[in-house]
UniProtKB/TrEMBL annotation, chains A, B:
It is an enzyme of class 2 (transferase). It comes from Tepidibacillus decaturensis. This is Molybdopterin molybdenumtransferase. Catalyzes the insertion of molybdate into adenylated molybdopterin with the concomitant release of AMP. GO terms for biological process: Mo-molybdopterin cofactor biosynthetic process.
Length: 640, 640
């Protein structure tokens, strides 16, 4: 049917095998120094002129002959005449002959228009910038393979270097392939996939100092793809083919490369990122077959294109900063491949804590949200919760230090909150993990987050959250603050075709329910509602089908693979679904006392209590901010 | 005569005073997502479509109805028919109705063209990417004030966001002023100063996300400058005036700003950087009067323009990484102003060591060479040698870790060596401090450098360097390796107008000698030459005038403020001076044993022993590489 197995070349081996094939002899071009920012020197650059190229005054004052001032003393002031004993000079002026020292204006006593008095002698060459003080003609300003910074441009111009030989920017052709992909559009037919990898690739090529050449989409046809790659090999230094790099029916990357040269590696032992093709064309140029999944694609570029381009430019491929972090959750890895896990990071109680994001290669948002990357070696089976591991940083430590770590129940207003915080003080950001109310509370206990969002109903008291704090956080000083009241209800297809109104309607033939995960406040609410009418989970078809957020639950209904779920009004509204109100509930924030008292905590309070935030929230519908920001409870912990 | 005193506003106070004046309401513009790299979101961005927007196969395989596969078992294989029980799907394909699971191709046993056999059931939604798995329509992709990265572009396009509202790039007008400055040229008249700050400013404006508008040089004329600033205030968001910011005769910046608005601060308590003018124009726009000296200018931009532009863009102004380092030399500071000291950094014996560069505000090269910046508080008198201080990094720690730290005698071939090392392995660099042979040896003893360059003659034995190692490095394991033999001689004006041939000629009336600093090998050689002919330092006019390198000594002669000095042939040649040979001497490298055995040490040896390096050196003239790379001595240190 199809060739289904790829090689399992270890990543490092693949990198060495591939990169050593290209001893690139880059082209050199001359650019005006004024336009050389970010370019890389193709040879050492030496000064053409000295700077200064004349003896220049370093101060505002007068130029004198030092030898003529030696008698000046407080008890024996010396008078000097303009054009005879001195000339007035400003900073940067040439020192007129025969003078050899400058006296600062601060030390002059003006007698009349032509006469000054001094009470201290000047020593020869004092306050004079001698020729070449900064740069001497012939001196090296920059070594070879140096990336030109603004200050370097200054030194080059000062040294009379008006043009610089730099390495020509590597040209990288980008060829997206696939019959199903379409240029970005909002008119999508089922099966259409928006081509976005090409834009991402082009941006990385720019960031790494190259020139992208976007070749346009080619459908899955061996001959058309081969033709386009041939064309690209003529005009570019490096060719990227996107998608079709696996071994499916219509994966032509590998065979096209084989037809135009040699396949060096097909398949690396990584998860994600396995279906990479590395090749060398008939004309000696590198071709990289980049996987179609965005996360795999990103990693493949980072592993192969980035070092290749830097090799081309004569630069060391920059490495990201690494730090040690504590894992907030257990991470399992199958042996046989290196795992690359995207993580969110935060600093909680002076300790960096990491939590894994989606491991799916198709989830672009896992890259957008990632603060760091964890690499699990081939032979490892993963790490336990609480274990310390080393991660590569995607954001600066400074940014991570100023990230408010939220974990708990999902609500759409968390997005609003994230933006409102940045609006108030953009040095801060909010990262949120939607793990459910109970898990959010447990995370507080384990010191993994600053804030938990929770709406846990105590069936006995009808009160929210308090009894859970008593149960789980009796040893952790925390503050409970209301965020919002919100409407929960049945989210159903537009027009409510299955006519769902009451909870009993869910038990009808052909109704497919979709539930939230265990520990989610919404699930606890559903269980409570079931009990009230004496129904059991077994009466609900789909009770065991779990989703992790209001939005993705609503999306499942929108997509037609469920008929109804319990969720918040805003999720229904955003996806243009119908909503039948069931209950209003209280959604609170629990924060550690330490965080509450910190600058970040006070910022958060300031933001949620602002009129702007509250009116934005209420305008979404289904929310009431009547108690937003109200402190509901502070626990007193003995010994703390 | 002139107003000569500026204010001494503490830097932090000046920053707060200035920045709080501008609550900038930035313009928003729409840009295509494909061109949004590096731009800053002007609002939170939400997905327009879900990704995927249909149920998609996550694998190559077949789509089936999960419920129909439940009976499949190893002992009871299940046969499925094409177009009845299954359809073939590739990764990314839509799942055809009514199927709800995918079985991977690896688990299929093909019976005939239309029939496959399976031995394991599929569970519902297995290997299907449900609608919105990556992004749900309505979900926030990016918060406000987020700098767009390549992956963000991918997520935006995937979420159907084809255009992004971003903050318009701040326009920054640059007005260089000064009658003496000229656009970059090689035809310099005495007094001409090449205008290079404008280029440096423009590049920083670009790096910080703005659009520079270069307004061209204006001569020192109040009305012309005022006119140009007015023009700039109309078209730009921020105006930079360069030079003229002090209080000299022709320093109009402050008065021009006062005439067009208000001067907020004139003079900050810093060294360098004091003459800054901060103002607010009649139309509310900020004007910065940037000092003329390049180092002062750079610091002023970093203190005021960088935070201002980031405030404009809604971003936190990025801070540089800080590390603790040991000071290789004592640094003295006068109280009353903060001192900003540029430093070179290196990692020697697992310890970061810092050495100050030139403190002159006019030395552009001190910025080019700087690895970091030390800030000395107003009330401090400085730091002792060996003291630990915190510095801000100008280069990455990774680059500093791979810097070979050279200190010792100056030679022009050190520039060649720096380039040759980068050519061989551009992840390494060489930083050299020209402190003289003896100081280089003492630095080795104190653990401040990896390599010292030395050519110290033992007058008794006529041998080079060895006796100095015995004297100073008896407790430090080192290796002595020859770098080169070189010609020392009299460097004189072109045509040798003073007719200098022998050392006795230096004692003639009207001959102005220029010497090297104490501890320099060349000075020791000169003393030795004097002794040989029974002359004393007192016989030489200018014996006490010291210069720190061959090149700057040659530049002093070129500039006419000395007639002769002892130096190497290459320095004379580079500056087109005449050279009268006096002696050939041996110039060696001393390296610590630890460095010698390291990867960096072996790289250095490999480079100097390469034919390419040796022929480059010899082609400069005045050098012989007959022993280059030869190990001359290794000391055995007990207990090491």
């Amino acid at each position: 049917m199809r060739k289904i197995y790829l090689e399992d070349t270890p990543l490092h081996e693949a990198q060495v095998k591939f990169l050593q094939l290209f001893d690139l002899k880059p082209n050199v071009e001359m650019v005006p120094t004024t336009e050389s920012l970010g370019r890389v020197t193709a040879q050492a650059i030496f000064a053409n002129v000295s700077m200064p190229h004349f003896h220049a005054s370093a101060m505002d004052g007068i130029a004198v002959k030092a030898e003529k001032t030696y008698s000046a003393h407080e008890t024996n002031p010396l008078r000097l005449k303009l054009h005879v004993d001195y000339e007035v000079v400003d900073t940067g002026d040439p020192i007129p002959e025969p003078f050899n020292a400058v006296i600062m204006v601060e030390y002059l006593h003006q007698i009349d228009e032509e006469t000054v008095e001094i009470i201290e002698p000047a020593s020869p060459w004092k306050h004079i910038r001698q020729i070449g003080e900064d740069i001497v003609a012939g001196e090296m300003i920059l070594p070879i393979y140096h990336k030109i910074r603004p200050v370097d441009q200054g030194a080059l111009l000062a040294g009379g270097v008006l043009e610089v030989p730099v390495i020509a920017m590597p040209k990288v052709a980008i060829i997206p392939t696939g019959t199903e992909i379409v240029e970005p559009t909002l008119n999508l037919k089922p099966g259409d996939i928006i081509e976005f990898n090409g834009t991402v690739f082009a941006s990385y090529v720019k960031e790494w100092g190259g020139k992208p050449i976007y070749k346009g989409i080619v459908i899955d046809d061996f001959n058309l793809i081969q033709q386009k790659v041939k064309e690209a090999l003529e005009e570019a230094d490096i060719v990227l083919m996107n998608a079709g790099s696996s071994a499916g029916r219509e994966d032509f990357t590998s065979s096209v490369i084989a037809s135009l040269g040699e396949v060096i590696v097909h398949g690396v032992a990584t998860r994600p990122g396995k279906p990479v093709v590395l090749g060398k064309a008939y004309n000696g140029k590198p071709i990289i077959g980049v996987p179609g999944y965005p996360v795999s694609a990103y990693l493949a570029l980072d592993w192969f294109l980035k070092p290749l381009m830097h090799q081309f430019l004569g630069l060391a491929s920059p490495e990201r900063r690494k730090i040690k972090v504590k894992l907030g959750r257990r991470i399992v890895s199958k042996m046989g491949a290196e795992d690359f896990i995207r993580l969110t990071l935060g600093k909680v109680n002076e300790q960096y804590v990491a939590n894994p994001l989606s491991r799916s290669a198709g989830v672009t948002m896992s890259l957008v949200r990632a603060d760091g990357l964890l690499r699990i070696p081939i032979q490892s089976q993963g790490y336990e919760q609480g274990e310390e591991v080393e991660v590569e940083l995607y954001r600066s430590l400074e940014q991570i230090d100023r990230t408010i770590v939220f974990a708990g129940s999902h609500d759409l207003i968390l997005d609003l909150l994230a933006s409102a915080i940045r609006k108030q003080d953009s040095s801060y950001s909010l990262s949120s993990a939607h793990i459910g109310s109970l898990a959010g509370i447990l995370a507080i206990r384990k010191g993994e987050n600053h804030v938990a969002g929770t709406h846990l109903l105590d069936e006995k008291t009808g009160e929210y959250n308090l009894s859970y704090i008593e149960q789980y956080l009796s040893n952790t000083p925390v503050v409970l603050i209301n965020l919002v009241y919100r409407q929960q209800g049945w989210i159903v297809q537009k027009g409510n075709p299955k006519q769902i109104q009451t909870i009993e309607d869910l038990t009808k033939e052909g109704i497919r329910y979709i539930n939230r995960q265990r520990g989610a406040g919404t699930r606890i609410l559903f269980d409570y509602l079931l009990k009230q009418v004496n129904l059991s989970p077994d009466d609900i078809y789909g009770y065991t089908r779990e989703d992790f957020s209001h939005l993705s639950l609503a999306a499942a209904i929108k997509g037609g693979n469920a008929d109804v779920g319990l969720g918040i009004y805003s999720a229904a509204k955003v996806l243009d679904l119908d909503f039948i109100p069931v209950a209003e509930e209280r959604y609170d924030l629990i924060m550690t006392k330490e965080f509450y008292q910190s600058e970040a905590g006070q910022l958060l309070i300031q933001v949620i209590t602002s009129d702007e935030f509250k009116s934005e929230v209420e305008s979404m519908g289904g929310y009431s901010c009547r108690d937003t920001g109200k402190i509901l409870y502070k626990n007193e912990v003995t010994g703390k």
